[in-house]
């Protein structure tokens, strides 16, 4: 699933600008029911993280939504009055759904989901990359469906992380030296990219589970990623897997 989807959105990773990459990614993801996109590249607020400080950080690249949505009462409500996604930012999450932080069966978030429905969002998958000096590249990808299989959700999240890594690289200077991974580190991350567990990777490569974790963590540190998902995305962005 991931290999097929990555081929499907290849144009986004080859785009010359952050805006072009965002639009190309959304166009490709419409085949999967995408109805909304927002991309940002900003720095984490140094003040207390609130809806207002998060918005004031700016860095909006592209927003593709119904014309009447931005600036509407519903838009202002989910951006300023009820923004459960701040929890994901505090935890430095790289992949999550809106519904992970705003359960759809909770009365507390009834108005939240009603407001999002005005933008044709039944749920949204989010991807976030974290760079140096507090840099953050984020993608909010809304869908008018929410019944993704685990494999579909995993593949879309990984593709989204590939996009946020691309956004980061388009606006940041390239690294002074290429990251060199060992063959085992690269093989282990490539299998992580296919959704394999550490145990499954250990069987495929004929090594111990602890050794798999060792190789994956070494690769993550070399790539400067906060977790293995971002490490995979950085390899995808560099066309190394």
Q: How much helical structure, as a percent, in the residues?
A: 40-55%
Secondary-structure element series:
HHHEHEHHEHHEEHHHHH
Residue ranges: pLDDT <50 for 5 or more in a row? Answer: none
Number of helices: 13
CATH architecture of the largest domain: 2-Layer Sandwich
Integer count of domains: 2
Enumerate the strands of the largest sheet in spatial order, edge to edge or round the barrel. 2-1-5-4-3
CATH class membership of the largest domain: Alpha Beta
- Please, what is the CATH homologous superfamily of the largest domain? Transcription factor LuxR-like, autoinducer-binding domain
Into which percentage range does the β-strand content fall? 5-15%
What is the alpha-carbon Rg in Å? 18 Å
**Overall form:** globular
User: What is the tally of beta strands?
Assistant: 5
């Amino acid at each position: 699933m991931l290999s097929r989807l990555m081929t499907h959105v290849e144009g986004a990773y080859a785009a010359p600008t952050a805006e072009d990459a965002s639009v190309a990614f959304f166009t490709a993801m419409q085949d999967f029911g995408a109805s909304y996109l927002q991309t940002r590249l900003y720095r984490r607020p140094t003040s207390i993280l609130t809806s207002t400080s998060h918005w004031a950080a700016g860095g909006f690249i592209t927003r593709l939504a119904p014309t009447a949505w931005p600036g509407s009462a519903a838009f202002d409500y989910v951006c300023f009055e009820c923004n459960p996604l701040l929890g994901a930012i505090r935890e430095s999450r790289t992949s999550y759904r809106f519904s992970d932080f705003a359960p759809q069966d909770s009365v507390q978030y009834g108005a939240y989901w009603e407001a999002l429905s005005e933008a044709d969002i039944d749920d949204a998958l989010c991807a976030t990359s974290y760079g140096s000096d507090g840099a953050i590249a984020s993608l909010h990808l809304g869908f008018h469906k929410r019944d993704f299989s685990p494999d579909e959700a995993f593949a879309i999240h990984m593709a989204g992380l590939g996009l946020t890594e691309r956004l980061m690289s388009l606006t940041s200077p390239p690294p002074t030296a290429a990251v060199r991974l060992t063959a085992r580190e690269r093989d282990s991350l490539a299998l992580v990219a296919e959704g394999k567990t550490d145990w499954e990777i250990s069987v495929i490569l004929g090594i111990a589970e602890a050794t798999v974790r060792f190789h994956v963590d070494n690769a993550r540190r070399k790539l400067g990623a906060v977790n293995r998902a971002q490490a995979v995305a950085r390899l995808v962005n560099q066309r190394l897997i």
